[in-house]
Specification:
Blueprint (H helix, E strand, L loop, with lengths): L10 E4 L9 H28 L6 H30 L3 E3 H34 L4 H4 L2 H27 L8 E2 L6 H6 L6 H34 L4 H34 L3 H25 L2 H11 L5
Parallel strand pairs: 1-3
Antiparallel strand pairs: 1-2
Length: 310
């Protein structure tokens, strides 16, 4: 078969989570509910941080950026899925697929960078509390977020441009509810060696590097907590980073589950179902994890809805 010209490709077909017509209303209702909860919960968190002067600190500044990235990440995939179910269609245009890949990679990697920056923030707060406000000054916080955005944009641009060089022939069925980069690359009938090389290199550099930074930060945090003599002091120190540690564990465990499921089974459907965890469920749970045990955020949220603060 002769490789086709990629300019002739007009659309891909997203097979979704299930092709059973009876399950479509259930899937639609479930994902619509999760999407609305994600957007509403994260918007409330952003509003709480911006409206309460007590939350104008580095930790909550990074948290607001994480909430924004979660809203954008979910909005990249779920609305298109809901539209396809509602219209009983499976198609996505070639340009739409490229755009979806660009923004999904952008906000997924931005999540990784922000979680790493937040781990560094907790490291400074616990290991160097007397110098915290000097080290984590507004200029450094803004610079950390700006660098994260720039690196994520450049990486997404590179991955998208690499996809544009591919040629596609036939069988343009994506076994997913969104355009997942590795699945799309596998559909190409031209040489994909360079694409796979860039994907693996970016995964190691932009995934493994930040994860190493998180592990290093928490190793220092644990070491500092263990040196605290009182049990109450240890509890207070640990409670300041418990929410972040929960989000990091949820994010990386779900992503690890996706790759293990895709490597351990030949079923692309199983991988698609597993990917729901980090693309939809994790962004939905983040606001709850940060607000349920956080008195400052609870107070700010009560102020927003008009509940008297005790």
């Amino acid at each position: 078969m002769e490789p086709g010209n990629d300019t002739q490709i007009s659309e891909f077909l997203l097979l979704g989570l299930s092709e059973d017509p009876e399950l479509q209303p259930l899937i639609f209702g479930l994902f619509l509910s999760m999407y609305l909860i994600t957007v509403f919960g994260n918007l409330l968190l952003i509003l709480a941080v911006s409206s309460d002067s007590h939350l104008h600190t580095p930790m909550y500044f990074f948290l607001a950026n994480l909430s924004f990235a979660d809203i954008c990440s979910t909005s990249t995939t779920v609305p298109k899925m809901l539209w396809n179910i509602q219209t009983q269609s499976k198609d996505i245009t070639y340009a739409g697929c490229v755009m979806q890949i660009y923004f999904l990679i952008l906000f997924a990697v931005l999540d990784v960078f922000l979680l790493t920056v937040m781990a560094y923030d907790r490291f400074v707060a616990i290991c160097h509390p007397l110098h915290y406000m000097v080290i984590m000054n507004p200029r450094l916080c803004g610079l950390l977020v700006l660098v994260s955005w720039v690196m994520c944009i450049l990486n997404s641009l590179l991955q998208s441009l690499m996809m544009l060089r591919l040629s596609f022939c036939s069988h343009l069925h994506i076994p997913h509810f969104f355009c997942e980069l590795s699945d799309v690359v596998q559909l190409a009938c031209s040489d994909t060696f360079l694409n796979n090389l860039v994907i693996y290199f970016a995964a190691v550099l932009l995934g493994g590097g930040p994860f190493t930074g998180i592990l290093y930060s928490y190793s220092k945090i644990v070491s500092s907590i263990l040196r605290i003599s009182s049990a109450l002091g240890k509890y207070k120190a640990f409670s300041t980073c418990a929410s972040h540690l929960s989000v990091v564990s949820l994010f990386y465990c779900t992503m690890l589950g996706v790759y293990l499921s895709s490597a351990g089974t030949q079923s692309s459907h199983a991988s698609a179902v597993a990917s729901v965890m980090y693309t939809v469920v994790t962004p939905m749970l983040n606001p709850f994890i940060y607000s349920l045990r956080n008195k400052d955020i609870k107070r700010a949220l009560k102020g927003i809805v008009g509940v008297p603060v005790m």
